[in-house]
C-alpha cells in the first residue's frame, strides 16, 4: 500500500530525535521510494519574509508565516504544500488532496497575492529509497492517517501531531514508547 496523500505521524519512542512528534505530509510513495515534507514543527526565528528577502523577492502581500522543518534532507531546499487552485512550472498533484511546488514561481505568486489560497512553506524533506519506508512501516515508528486539509492548512504546527492522532481516535498520551515481541 502506497502512502501518497496521507500523513505519517511519528510514534512515541521512534528513536530518532529529528522525528520526535513529526507529522510528514507524504507527497510521493511508490516502488522507487518516497518523499514527504514535515509540517509538525517550525524553524525558530525564520519566517517567510526572511526567506523571500534571501531570494530577492519582495514580500508584497505575503503574510510573514512560519517556515516549517520539512525534514533532514537538503535542509536549504524549499517546498510549498498548497491547495489545488494554483499550479506552476513543476507543481505536482498529490493524490488530488493538495499540491507540492518547489520552484520560485510559487513564492513569487504568494508574494504578489496571485498564489494558492492556502499554503505551507518548508525547508528540507524526508526521503526514503526503494522499499525503505515499506520496511520501516513493519516496525514501531510510524502511524498513518488520511490526508486532511484541516490538519495541513488550519491546525497550528505545534498541534498537528496530537490532532492527527485524535482524528484517528487515538490518544497519544496512552501510547508506549516501546514495542514488544510476541
UniProtKB/TrEMBL annotation:
<dbReference type="InterPro" id="IPR003774">
    <property type="entry name" value="AlgH-like"/>
</dbReference>
<dbReference type="Pfam" id="PF02622">
    <property type="entry name" value="DUF179"/>
</dbReference>
<protein>
    <recommendedName>
        <fullName>UPF0301 protein HBH26_11920</fullName>
    </recommendedName>
</protein>
<comment type="similarity">
    <text>Belongs to the UPF0301 (AlgH) family.</text>
</comment>
